[in-house]
Specification:
- This protein is α+β, with helices and mostly antiparallel strands.
- The chain has two domains: 22-260, Metalloenzyme, LuxS/M16 peptidase-like (Cytochrome Bc1 Complex, Chain A, domain 1, 2-Layer Sandwich); 272-463, Cytochrome Bc1 Complex, Chain A, domain 1 (2-Layer Sandwich).
- Helix content is 43%, strand content 17%.
- The chain contains 18 helices and 13 strands.
- It has helices at 26-33, 45-55, 98-108, 116-126, 150-162, 168-185, 189-201, 213-218, 221-231, 247-256, 310-331, 359-375, 380-384, 387-396, 401-415, 425-429, 433-443, 460-463; strands at residues 2-3, 56-61, 64-70, 76-84, 129-134, 138-146, 237-243, 281-285, 294-301, 339-343, 349-356, 376-377, 448-452.
- Strands 2-3-7-4-6-5 form a six-stranded mixed beta sheet, sandwiched between helices.
- A hairpin with a 2-residue loop joins strand 2 and strand 3 (64-70).
- Helix 2 crosses helix 14 and helix 12 packs across helix 17.
- The longest helix is centred in the last third of the chain and has 22 residues, at 310-331.
């Protein structure tokens, strides 16, 4: 390993602390519902993050685990009821779309005590919002409202959780929308490659069941009613609340509503890495029409938040993404917007995405960048450069009550510790050259490539060499 003098002044690719990927699109709806709810302002984003951490309380009420941050000067309250397990734990005899459908229809249907029409009129008048969905690792019901409408909004929110209505019209419309979306996969190469990559890379893994038209058509109203009832038990629940509410008031609210749910007996199980994470691969697909370029996607295993390698990998991704963009787009003009990103979940993956007719040349450049980071030590001054600006941008993403509630709950479910929710400036700025080289050697390997288009003549051996 040689010491290099590289200053690495290539523009750093911006990190995405809130990893709301295409596969977790419904989390965007949570933020949209509460876009008007911001936490109290601060002269420093770094100081504001410290205040958030100091203000968070963690406690149980009637067997329901709760994370709460009281923000007394904020007019908006955001609450997210997370359900542990997620779509990945859907029983094999049930369609994989069951849980997401159950949560979405429950959130849209009102409750047994409030008909859908009255429910919607009241929510619109209050400016409140309730949503639902599922990821691989958890499902959720979300609520955002102003403080003055909290009592009524909370009553509606908890009625959805405890007395869902499951409206037949909402169910039929949702089924039709899902079928349209799935049919469009075969006509959109970017959606097609995502679908194929997930099904192949996670084959045999709980994440490997991707939705199909058959899944959608098999789901029935009685099925989602039963599924919802089976997962809405206190041993699965995590409630994350941020806003102008005291611990005493929230305790009383939970005790009178969610506290009446059955206990359940859910126990979290370890999740192994997918088998494909241990070996490189290349999967080439033709398309039903001629494409002007090739769509290229690579998956590789990376550390999850809370792992000791997480911050060194974040810094590596920053540099690696900048190198890939500069060398492929700026220097060689082989692709318009090559991107290095990741999908944070219990089994996390890194992703390299680009569209290019020159696949072999692009991959050769990418592997050259991999070699650079695996075989060189980068100067500490270069590693620290740009961290402050990046930190400020990402702290601003955690300003809303909704984003804070999301981050707190996600961190607790995915890492076991809500403290992992908020970016640590100290940890990122103190990554060492040796740590950077270590994570490059450990994680920039076993790339699985998925390519859609004219794959004639592509060098498969090169793709599978790392």
């Amino acid at each position: 390993m040689k010491i290099t003098n590289y200053e690495l002044r290539i523009t750093n690719q911006e990190f995405h602390l809130l990893d709301f990927t295409r596969h977790c699109w419904f989390l965007l709806a949570i933020l949209a519902l509460a876009s008007c709810g911001t936490s109290h302002s601060s002269s420093s984003s770094l100081a504001n993050s410290a205040n958030i951490v100091q203000d968070v309380e963690e406690f149980d009420v009637d067997g329901i685990h709760i994370l709460m941050r009281q923000a007394a000067t904020v007019p908006v309250v955001s609450a997210i009821l997370f359900v542990r397990g997620g779509a990945a734990l859907t029983p094999p005899n049930e369609p994989i779309t069951t849980e997401n459908t159950a949560m979405a229809i429950a959130a849209a249907s009102g409750s047994q005590r409030t008909p859908k029409a009255s429910f919607r009129r009241k929510m619109v008048r209050m400016g409140s919002g309730i949503g639902g969905g599922a990821t691989n690792d958890y499902s959720f019901l979300s609520m955002s409202c102003t403080r003055e409408n909290f009592d009524t909004s909370w009553a509606y929110f908890t009625d959805v959780a405890t007395r869902p209505a499951f409206d037949a019209t909402e169910f039929a419309n949702y089924q039709q929308a899902q079928m349209i979306g799935l049919k469009s996969v075969s006509s959109a190469p970017d959606a097609f490659i995502d679908h194929e990559a997930d099904s192949i890379y996670f084959a045999g893994h709980p994440y490997g069941r991707v939705p199909t038209g058959e899944d959608v058509s098999r789901v029935t109203l009685p099925m989602i009613q039963q599924h919802f009832k089976s997962i809405m038990v206190k041993s699965r629940l995590l409630l994350s609340v941020v806003g102008n509410i005291s611990r005493e008031e929230l305790t009383q609210k939970v005790h009178a509503t969610l506290g009446n749910l059955p206990e359940g007996s859910y126990t979290s199980q370890p999740l192994a890495a997918p088998a494909r994470a241990a070996t490189p691969g290349a999967f080439l697909f033709s398309f039903d029409r001629k494409l002007p370029t090739n769509y290229v996607l690579a998956y590789f295993s990376i550390p999850t938040e809370g792992d000791s390698d997480y911050y060194p990998y974040l810094r590596l991704r920053n540099f690696f993404g900048g190198f890939v963009f500069n060398h492929i787009r700026v220097q060689h003009n082989l692709a318009y917007a090559p991107n290095v990103d990741d999908r944070q979940q219990r089994s996390s993956i890194g992703m390299i995405e680009l569209q290019t007719p020159y696949v072999d040349s692009a991959v050769k450049i990418i592997y050259g960048d991999v070699d650079f980071f695996q075989n060189n030590l980068i100067r500490e001054s270069a590693i620290r450069e740009g961290v402050a600006g990046w930190a400020t941008r990402n702290y601003l993403k955690a300003e809303t009550t909704a984003s804070q509630a999301v981050l707190l709950g996600q961190a607790k479910l995915l890492t076991g510790d809500w403290h992992d929710a908020f970016f640590s400036y100290e940890k990122l700025s103190h990554v060492t050259p040796e740590q950077l080289a270590h994570v490059a050697q450990k994680y920039l390997r076993n790339f699985n490539w998925f390519i859609v288009g004219d794959t004639t003549g592509i060098d498969r051996a090169r793709l599978e060499s790392r």
